[in-house]
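Sequence, please.
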């Protein structure tokens, strides 16, 4: 599975952005897709995730109510709609795919495939 993340950019606080994660290759082998982010000088952290089969979603507390994750099965694409962006949302955003079901998708070691990252910069 190859993942291509896109949609990042420079926006002002309060603006919105939509990130896309397009999957290609053996996409049927993926059961869950997540978004992570890594701010300068910080560790990578979980943002949101969605299952391909039932569309179950999970969010980090820091983005709940502002970000929405969705999927388009026909396009093998997962989206992350980010509203009310804050300067602390500035980071490189990565999408990742997991091959196996897990009790949690908030940890990196669950994921088998990673995209290259897209930079989101939110100015104050």
């Amino acid at each position: 599975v190859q993942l291509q993340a896109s949609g990042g950019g420079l926006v002002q606080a309060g603006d919105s952005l939509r990130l896309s994660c397009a999957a290609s290759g053996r996409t049927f082998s993926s059961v869950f897709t997540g978004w992570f982010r890594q701010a300068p000088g910080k560790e990578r952290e979980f943002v949101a995730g969605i299952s391909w089969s039932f569309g179950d979603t999970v969010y980090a507390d820091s983005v709940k109510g502002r970000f929405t994750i969705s999927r388009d099965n026909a396009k093998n694409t997962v989206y992350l709609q980010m509203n009310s962006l804050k300067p602390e949302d500035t980071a490189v955003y990565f999408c990742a795919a997991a091959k196996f079901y897990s009790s949690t998708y908030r940890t990196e070691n669950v994921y088998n495939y990673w995209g290259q990252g897209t930079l989101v910069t939110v100015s104050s």
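DSSP finds no helices and eleven strands in the chain.
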